Amino acid sequence: MESEFLLAMASPLTLVMRWLHILAAITALGGAIFALLALHPTVATALDAEAGKSFLATVRGRWSKVLHTAILVLIISGVYNVSQTIGDRPPVYHMVFTLKLLLALAIFFFAIALTGRSQATQKLRDHTTKWLTVVVVLGVIVVCLSGFLRFVPPKSAEPAAPADASIQSPTGENTLPAAVGSTIVEV
Length: 187
Ligand code: HEM
What we know:
single chain, elongated
């Protein structure tokens, strides 16, 4: 834990990228949660259909710039994070990361479509609440998967197997005292 902190401080860029990644995730996902739980229900009850439509179009125009910036920051900082972590991780890390990446790409697609103006994605905007719900649920899953990745230790931190078979009993158990075993790992 302490050594991890020192490692992060040893590379200020790693720390800055982590901050940017988390801030961008908060911005993008927080915006989607706000839109789903507060903005759209309020517009539906407080404004008539035409006024609501034009109000939401104005909000979308402003929010899309923030969202596109957050997505760009997520991709740049995410690629940097990958370059720092993935090489030394076990297969479970790679599997969970691949799943996270696919879900993140799906989120980017829906989020951009919902704030865009293209006719091709109008069908999605006609069912905004449904697709916003999908974005929020997938976003929460992505955050949980990311938190899990943080707990997968590097391969180099895993205890090594005993180098010499002669230190094992006939039943396959390691017969050396724990202290001696840990000395072997450190060597
Ligand atoms: C919806 C989009 C995304 C969200 C909500 C998200 C969220 C997060 C969060 C909350 C963390 C944990 C940060 C920490 O504990 O310091 C994280 C870490 C990470 N993210 Fe993302 N992320 C997204 C997209 C991406 C993308 C597109 C990439 C790659 C191109 C990426 C790569 C990574 C990596 C490698 C880590 C470090 C995992 C580790 O601790 O080993 N993320 N992400």
